[in-house]
Design brief:
By secondary structure, this protein is of the alpha/beta class. The chain has 16 helices and 8 strands. It has helices spanning about 25-35, 40-45, 55-65, 70-90, 100-105, 110-125, 145-155, 180-185, 200-210, 225-235, 245-250, 260-265, 275-280, 285-295, 300-310, 315-324; strands at about 10-15, 90-95, 130-140, 160-165, 190-195, 215-220, 240, 270. It is globular. The two termini are about 25 Å apart. The protein binds adenine (ADE) and zinc ion. Adenine (ADE) binds near residues 54 and 276. Its cofactor is Zn(2+). Keywords: Hydrolase, Metal-binding, Nucleotide metabolism, Zinc. InterPro entries: A_deaminase_dom (IPR001365), ADE (IPR028892), Ado/ade_deaminase (IPR006330), Metal_Hydrolase (IPR032466).
């Protein structure tokens, strides 16, 4: 990216590692692991990425994840993402992983975790990129299954900073996971949740009041509730916004209609993130570039968004202070 402003150091706080599976790697791993795909070329995979809403994306995304089989596959996936971070000058990243997507296929929790963490350690050593891991519960599955996943994570508390909630939002409100989050908090995990992506403001207030989240993932629907926006400003609850994702999944019809700069100018701690960049047309700098093209974002706003990304991170205070 030629624009010097885009080379500002930044943190990424909303990134699903399974969503970084590029079609080339998907094809390569499908062949290696003898997994059959409903596509016969990399181009055909890209062609299939036409979504009408969140669910139409999730169906394709879970099917693609089936090519991830052994520990080295998770390492390759994560390493490829870290190389993208290096290109975009993402110096710190907080990565979501969805263990249930893999354990449901018979892959051990440990295989997933250790594959990812091997790459993260190498990223720190060789690329100077710091990272944290956040375990997401799939909200279309039951409370009981989420509780079981939390049990599996307990021996690895030192490697997982937080818990999140993702997958199909509509019909799976925060209250379904209230007990799981209470227990995760007791065990020392920091809570976050996807809320207000497709769901209305009640999903955001539910995440705040019932799950006690420290950040809202997406949250763009808060614009419909002045009192809620006042609260998010006052309590400095960040929103991890994903502009290209929101266009691809039709949360907004066009980038010109995206509300991220309105929320920023209203004083909310919004950040820019790529969500599932292999599926949505780009990594973090492509998100900034698209905003710049369609939203008349100025350099001051861009700088503020980069500062917000560190402020909203779960970095240790001295590391935060270094970057701000
Ligand atoms: N899983 C991966 N990406 C997601 C998104 N944008 N919303 C909900 N669940 C997801
Ligand atoms: Zn997400």
């Amino acid at each position: 990216m030629e624009d010097a402003m885009l080379q500002l150091p930044k943190a990424e706080l909303h990134l699903h590692i399974e969503g970084t599976l590029e079609p080339e790697l998907m094809m390569e791993l499908a062949q290696k692991n003898h997994v059959s795909l409903p596509y016969d070329s990399v181009d055909a995979i890209r062609q299939a990425y036409q979504f009408t809403d969140l669910q139409s994306f999730l169906d394709i995304y879970y099917a693609g994840a089936a090519v991830l089989q052994d520990e080295s596959d998770f390492t390759s996936l994560t390493w490829a993402y870290l190389l993208k971070c290096k290109e975009d000058n993402v110096v710190h990243t907080e990565i979501f992983f969805d263990p249930q997507t893999h354990t449901a296929r018979g892959i051990a929790f440990e295989t997933v975790l250790s594959g990812i963490t091997t790459a993260l350690k190498r990223g720190e050593d060789e690329l100077g990129i710091s990272s944290k891991l956040i375990l997401c519960f799939l909200r279309h599955l039951s409370e009981e299954e989420a509780m079981k996943t939390l049990d599996q994570a307990l021996p690895y508390k030192d490697q997982i900073i937080g818990v999140g909630l993702d997958s199909s939002e509509l019909g799976n409100p925060p209250e379904k996971f209230q007990r799981v989050f209470a227990r995760a908090i007791e065990e020392g995990f920091i809570p976050v949740a996807h809320a207000g992506e497709e769901g209305d403001v009640s999903y955001i207030t539910g995440a705040l009041n019932l799950l006690h989240v420290k950040r809202i993932d997406h949250g763009v629907q808060c614009i419909h509730d002045e009192a809620l926006m006042d609260r998010l400003v006052k309590e400095r609850i960040p929103l991890t916004v994903c502009p290209l994702s929101n266009i691809k999944l039709r949360v907004f019809d066009t980038m010109a209609e995206h509300n991220i700069l309105q929320l920023l100018d209203r004083g909310l701690a919004v950040t820019v993130n790529s969500d599932d960049p292999a599926y949505f047309g780009g990594y973090i700098n492509e998100n900034f570039a698209a905003m710049r093209r369609s939203l008349r974002m100025n350099d001051q706003q861009l700088k503020q968004l980069a500062i917000n990304s560190f402020e909203a991170s779960f970095l240790e205070p001295e590391k935060k202070a270094y970057w701000i």
